[in-house]
Amino acid sequence: MLAYNHELFIRQALESVLAQCVNFNYEIVVGEDKSTDGTRAILMDLYRRYPERIVPLLHDRNTGMMRNFQATLSSCRGQYLAIVEGDDYWTCENKLQRQVDFLDQHPDYAVCFHRAQVLDQTGAGRADVIPRPSFSAGPYTIEDLIAENLIATCTVMYRWDCVGPLPDWFLDLKLGDWPLHILVAQSGKIMLMDEVMSVYRMHSGGMWTSGQGIAQKREMMRMMKSLDRHLNFQYTDAIRRTLAVLYLDMAIIERLKGNRMPTLRYLTASLRGGKLPLAGRWRALAALLAYSVFGIRRVESAPGRHNHPPLAPPFGRSPRDEHNSDVL
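Request: output the structure for the sequence above.
Response:
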């Protein structure tokens, strides 16, 4: 668990982990990154009550999200690793047991995750379940994860020996969960369990929720290019398809801002190389082209768009990545 200025949420997050009913030992390693509110006091209050269960990792200065993540991961020592951020929480007392049982019984799987309910406290009125119901329960591959971040961070469990040390370039990213899912998925298959067993909270203080659209897309692209090199270009075609979709997302963002030339530039980049998946996107592409070339301002809906689920901040692209592709 990473925690920074989560005073309003961390007690609920910790208590949801402490409430787990399991037949094995587990510990909660909490990286508390020198919060400026009452987060640390709440953490230490619970630690004094549950010293055998909670392992506080207290930084004497703010290290930043990714270095806190690295330090917290390196302090974990279990057979399996589950993640819940300090502003999310679990809703099923058997969550850990069910995931451990699955991984025990299926040694060819490196990752299992489940669905999460989105709790929108930004006022946008979202009430999604992620991944969307259109993603059926069952096995997925690393290529599926490259195409879209299906996994809310508060739902994932990894085999610890599949995690490994984080590469140096990882620490320079501004999002962590999506690339980590992909890195672990090199070691085995991925299972989506159908149950909703956690809550993914969207709030104005979330690092990803409060970001800017174009900047977020650029960060995702930088992450994808780093992954491509790290994976020795084994998945270049899949990564290029994702980059094309991100360019299309950026064209849509600029269209909504009324910026005609940037719309055309990003639209052209999305089509260059022929990697953009076109199924379900023809209407959106036609509307973008009409606007960027001819200046036609008719508003169209965009069915069948590539809808990235929000990445579970604070680590990265996640269910908190609110999309700008609803309207053209």
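Residues 110 and 188 are 5 Å apart (CA to CA).
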